[in-house]
Amino acid sequence: MTIIGWAQIAAIFALVFVCVKPLGLYMAGVFSNEVTFLSPVIAPVERAFYRLAGVNPAQEEGWRSYTIAMLVFNATGFVFLYVLMRLQGVLPLNPQGFSAVAPDLAFNTAISFVTNTNWQAYGGETTMSHLVQMAGLTVQNFLSAATGIALALVLVRALARSGARTVGNFWVDVTRATLYLLLPFSLVVALAYVATGLPQTLLGSIDVTTLEGAKQTLALGPVASQEAIKQLGTNGGGFFNVNAAHPFENATAISNMISIWAMLVISAALPITFGRMVGDDRQGWGLLAAMLVILIAGVGFAYWAEANGNPLLTALGVDQIAGNMEGKEVRFGTAMSALYAAVTTGLSCGAVNSMHDSFTPLGGLVPLVLIQLGEVLPGGVGSGLYGMLVFAIVAVFIAGLMVGRTPEYLGKKIEAREMKLAMLALLILPFAILGFSAIAVMLPKALESLANSGPHGLSEILYAYSSATGNNGSAFAGLSANTPWYNMTLGIAMLLGRFAYVVPVMAMAGALAGKVRGTASEGTFPTHTVLFVALLVGTILIVAGLEFFPAVALGPIVEHFQMLAGKTF
Hints:
The protein is mainly alpha-helical. It has 20 helices and 4 strands. The strands form 2 sheets. A two-stranded antiparallel sheet has the order 1-2. Helix 2 packs across helix 7 and helix 8 crosses helix 9.
């Protein structure tokens, strides 16, 4: 580890930190229907959308109507994207001449992009036409991110309101999230990407002459525009197969810094939005502190593991003065690779600028565990916030049990119904991750997809189902997942991780919204202090982390000791 490496990491976190308050307050204004500096330009467009859709923006919905609207909207997006891929061969804007996408892969990809997972069991530049990339995948990048923000707003309003029967209007929330936040920010970031060297063209490819005089064909396309919303919306799906390790997706150290900043900034600002909307900014800063404590620890641990190198490579005569550079880009190095890996998995982004499969066992442990902790550090746009609020409710319940008082959060009593719904949501991850992983390690057809045996092979399977259920999308690339088994089961895991999780959270929001918000007294447990942050961090580590410890111990931890003993698989 070097001072320069730590300085790079600190600089990016500093850039994010200075943006979270102004952006968080801006979003609070947007979702409270206040006039913003973009209103003169966007408000007429917004009203036109409502008229065309027949939506009354002043009419709010209860949690059931809101949830049904969300499910219908996303089901429609799935059908549209699936049909678009199946008809790809006969549609325009297909300069590469690609044929239709196979049914099981189209099923997996459609679910992946609708759920904000962006798991890709294919190479983008060799599979998807420009029309599918733009009208299908990029559109869903916007809509899935907007859906996550909308769902978070339901829980925020439920905690902010007193005795309410409504929680907002889904169509208004999705529209405002897209028009006032995701679209203008993506435009700015896309222009910044173009300035750093990312292509933005409708050409399918270009033929070039290499320095050795050979001919080479380079795939091109509308990369910068997809890359912008990929990062800002914590989607993660790349235009190219190797994602942000490709120089056309991540050309320079500057574009790499922009990418990490863009991944973090909206999710990190949403807790500030939460604090402002519930009337106590300190609540938002407390949630953000808990998120960053674990994330920064993960960054430091991953950097340490990769900077120490791999003794197996040292034994082969590989100079590891720069650390373990296997699977990493020289233009980024170990520090920026470790930071990117931790951020993309602490979020639910899944973009990669290095191959997690090539990390040291403990370095690869970090992204795996950060996903398994619930994708709340700070998680996907919107989904990270409502996931963290679920943990906060569990934390105050535990605190109430310890002191013998009825637990409260922001003046709302947390009772049996809320806790049952919270635990139902939290159990989705271990159910899908461990259940599907257990089945996969027993099936010969599933094991045929592994590039490695032993504990690293187990890590590849465990990571795949963790990534799918956590709606992350990154992978240990040694697993060949484009098979009917993995396409179908990973698709189901994505559905469970997104919708089976959020439906009980919406039901909990409906119950909380109807409760009268009490006032704090001397006996009220404060939820903005260092003590609560520590309790929240402990709850995340114990409730979420210990569920997966036996499986993790059999994978990367065993592999670490085998590496020290000089054994490979």
